[in-house]
C-alpha cells in the first residue's frame, strides 16, 4: 500500500515539476515580439516648432484633434515614446507564416487562427472535413443510385479525392502567399500584419 502511494506521489510530483519547468522555459523562449514598455495607444501631445505657432504632431501616424494640443493615433498604430516613432500594432507576420508553412498545421489554417481570423480558419476546416464528408456521401450515393458495387464506383471516389487534394493544396499555397505578402491579410482588429 505504501509503495503504491509513494509511486503515485512521485508521479504527481514529476508531472507538476515538468509542467512548472515547461511553463517557465516555453513561455519565455517562444515570445514573438519583445515587450513594449513605453508605448502609447491613446492621445499624444503635439509639439510647436520654433518657426511656427502651429501645433505639429510628432509622428506621421497621428492627426491633430481639432484646435487642441493633442494628437490622436490612427488605427493600427501606437507611439513609442522611447524611440519617438510610430509602431504598427498588427500581429507580427512570422508566427502565422511559420504555422501556414508547416504542412500539417497549414492545411488546418492554424496561421489564420493564430491572428484571430476565425473566418479563414473555419474555411480551411470546412474544406478539409467537408471534402472528406463529401467523398463518403458521393461514393455512397453513386453506389446506391446506380446499383453498382463499391469497386465499380472506385473511379468516382478517386476523382473526388483528387479534386479534394487539389483544393487543399491550393488553400495551403494561398495561405502562405497571403501571410508572406505585406498588407494582404488583416488580423482580428482589422490591422495589417507587422514586422515586414
Strand content: 5-15%
Strand tally? 6
The total domain count is 3
Shape: elongated
Uncertain segments: 24-37
Provide the succession of SSEs: HEEEEEEHHHHH
Backbone structural class:
mainly alpha
Distance between the termini: 61 Å
- The Cα radius of gyration reads 27 Å
Question: Kindly state the mean pLDDT as a whole number?
Answer: 80
Estimated helix fraction: 40-55%
Strand order, sheet with most strands:
1-5-6
Query: Could you give a short account of the major beta sheet?
Result: 3 strands, antiparallel
What is the tally of helical segments?
A: 6
Explain the overall architecture.
With 196 residues, the chain is mostly helical. The chain has helices at 2-29, 94-101, 103-106, 110-114, 118-146, 154-180; strands at residues 39-40, 43-45, 62-64, 70-73, 77-80, 85-88. It folds into three domains: 1-30; 39-88, no CATH class; 94-180, no CATH class. The protein contains six helices and six strands, in the order αββββββααααα. The strands form two sheets. A three-stranded antiparallel sheet has the order 1-5-6, with no helix packed on it. Strands 2-4-3 form a three-stranded antiparallel sheet, with no helix packed on it. The model is unreliable at 24-37 (pLDDT under 50). α2 packs antiparallel against α6.
Question: Quick recap of the structure?
Answer:
This protein is mainly alpha-helical and 196 residues long.
